[in-house]
Every structure is written in C-alpha cells, then in structure tokens.
Amino acid sequence: METKKSRLSWGGMALLLCGMCALTSLFLAPGPRALAATPAFVRIIHASPFVATADIFVDGSPFLTSFGFGAVTDYKAVPPGSHKVQIALEGKGIAASALTQVFSVQPGMVYTVVATGTSASTLALKAFIDSNLATSGNAKVRMYQLSPDGGWMSIQANSKYMTGASYLQDSGYFTLSAGSVTFTLDSAAAGKSLSMSMTLPANTVTSVFAVGMFHGNPKAELVSAQTTALPGLPQTGSDPYAVVSNSNGPFGAPWLLIALAALVVGGTLLTWRLFARDKG
Amino acid sequence: MGMFSLRGSRFWGFIALLLVLCCGLVGCDNPSGPVQVAHANMLPASTQQAPTALPTRDAPPGPRRLLIPAIGVNAAIEDVGIASSGDLGTPTRSPWTDTGWYMNGPRPGERGSAVIDGHLDRPGGLPAVFWRLREVRAGNEVDVINSEGKMLRFRVTDVEYYQPRDAPIQQIFGNTSGTYLNLITCAGDWIPIQHQTTLRLVVYTTLI
After folding, report:
1. How many Å separate Cα B156 from the centre of its chain?
2. B12 vs A33: CB contact, 8 Å cut-off?
3. pTM of structure
C-alpha cells in the first residue's frame, strides 16, 4: 500500500506541476489594457476677430496668457475627460470671461481647438481631430478655413489645385513631396487670394490656417504651423514557425527539434524499460 | 509487460514530466511565453559589465548604448528613421541584438519623448534583444550612454500593451511635457497572414 501511495503521490505532483505551468503561462499572457491614464493632446489657435489678446483658463487655472490673434500653440498633454474652458481679455481675469465652454477630450486623441466667432454671441471653441501619422518620405498638409467672411476657399500648391473648404471646415490631409512650395488660397466670396511660401521637410505635417477678415479687421492672413510627423509602431516580431538554416549555431531550430525528438524517444524508452523491470 | 502497467500512475508521472520539459523547450518558439534566455547582449544582471563604449570623433550624435539591468540588456543603439510603411524603422546592422533610436525625435535626455525600439525575437522564435522587455516593471531603471559617453538614468513609470492601430502615437512619440524615453517591441501572438504580432509593448520611462 505504501508503494502505491508513493506512486500516486509522485504522479499527482507531476500532473500538478503541469497544471501550474499552464496556469502561469495563462496569467503571464499579455492583453490589451485600458487607456485610462493616457492623455489627450491639444493645441489652440486664436482665430476670433472679436477678441484681441486673450487669457485662457482651463478648469479655473491659467492655461495660456497673452494669447494673440493668429497665434498657434504646440500640442499640450491634457487629462482626458471634460474641462471647463474660459476665455477673457488679457489681464481682465477669469471673472470677466467672454466665453465659458465645457470641452471634452478623449484619451490618446489629438485636437486642434479654434477660438472663433465675430461677436460675443458667436464666440465659441471648435475642435478638429488631427492625425500626425507620417506618410513616409513625404509632407502632409491640411488647410483650415477660419476666415469668417472667406466663404468656401480653394487651396493651390505651386499653382496646382489641391482641395478646398468652407468656413470652420478643414480641407482634409493631402500629401506633397518635400521641398519648396507656395500655397495660394482663393476666396470666391471675397474675390481675393492669400499666398504663402515655405519649405516642406519630409516627414512633417503642415497646417495652413486662413484667419481674419477680408472685409474688416484684423485683416485676413495665412498662418502656418509645422510639426514632425510621427511613425506608426514598428513590427519587431518574427515568424516563430520560420524554418531557419543551421547557420545560427547550436541553438538553431533544427537542433532544437532533434533535441526535442531525442528527449521524447529516450524518455519513453527509459520509462518502458523501468516498468518492464518492475513487472519482471 | 502488460498495458495495465503502462497505465500506472508512475508511468503517467514520467509522461507528465516529459511534457513539462517539452513545454519548456517549445516555449522558446512562443513569443508570448515567459522564458529567460541569456545571449551575447542579454547578460544576467549580476554579470553586467560596466559599459565600455566611448564616443569617437566620428561617432554619430545619437545615443550609443542601452542598459536595462533588471532584464540583463546591454545593447548597442543604431539610428533608425521611418520605414517605407510609415512605421518606425528597426535596427539593420545587427537587427537581433541592437536597438534602434528614432532619430527624427529628441535624443534621450532632451525634453520630449525619445523612442528606442528592438526586436522581440528572431525568425524561428529565438529571443532577440527585447525578448524580456515584458518583465520590466514600474520602478526599474533604464540607462542610456549618450554620444558623449555620459550615462542618463531613466525610471520605468508604466508598461502598456496596445493594438498596433489603437496605440496613442502622440503620447509615445510627441509628449513634450517632460523628458521621456519610451521603449517599444512586439507582444502577443503571431498572426501568419498579417506577418506581425497582435500587440505592441510600450515601456514608458522618465529621466531621473
């Protein structure tokens, strides 16, 4: 009876070990996780002819000071969720805010937020969702039509028509070869054009903003902002089932298979002989 | 010897042990499996040598070596750009043992998000330089030897897994709110038809 108990215990422990290995590998397997802590990224452009230089407050705290018409910020990390944004004339304080608006941002998303409006009643924030992913070796461009009396505006690159957009709309992204370019934006409504020359480096994203008034002040103009395009995440895994030549040395796949086969065959034979001896 | 003997508990004990050993070996082919393998650039932490790579007059301005003592990584750093696919490039000189610094972004130690990637495994499933990156935990240290030979020390703040298309690219490459170094490799299961793994692993670190 003792021998039988011992055998049962030994076999049971081995099986238990198998189970523990399986459970361990199960719990160590990675899985997608929530992006709760991932911030959103926001840049702001002042395109409201109604407000001169302004201070911007977010959730009651100063966010930007002395923010002039036509100015564009860099992207700033912002906690995801809802935020109270207030805009006041420079130096007047948060109590004198001309605009109070609750603004919601999603984790990992990238936004261009435009302060827009030509009067107290039309003062507002408008958000565009950006994509700064690279198009390898080229330059990405997007035009934002933020001129209140510009109507629908077309954009040409080196005299070649690209696309167009209405007020408070964007043109969508288009791709250009890296190099020098002259952008020309035509407003049919105003019967006027705006022009700007620049260099487009490879792997950049250029934003061209039409701001201001064709008939009034501040005068219509083009403002640009350029940011480095961002790559996608790399593929750094390899085919685990690929057949590899034995030039990889003693740990190459063929040697691994041979060792595995030898282990299985040898172990089975040994087990067989041990039991044969026990039986004999 | 009858079949009854072969079905005894001792026999099945042997078979179970063989299975355990086989699982251990086959696990080398599984990119998700927790396997610790040391090779030339993955020295055990206790045997880690002090970095000897010093810059020369012709040295590129990028960082030179990456050290992660917790997982025994001591690897050279190559400059990488953007691949034709639009994704971050990977090391080419020694693809399995080197790491790649994204040269269009900030250098480690500069304000912003510096990024270094490395392969998870080699064709056939053998480990590459970032095989054990999954074992890194918040609080671990990551060191970079820059082109002047100076060591910069970072601390791991977060470890995240993402679907490739759902990753917060701006956070990984474009967060300028501090001085960061983010490490990237593949994770999850291999998808033969897509020739890629299901996930990407990003280790976030901050300069200390």
Report:
1. 14
2. no
3. 0.74
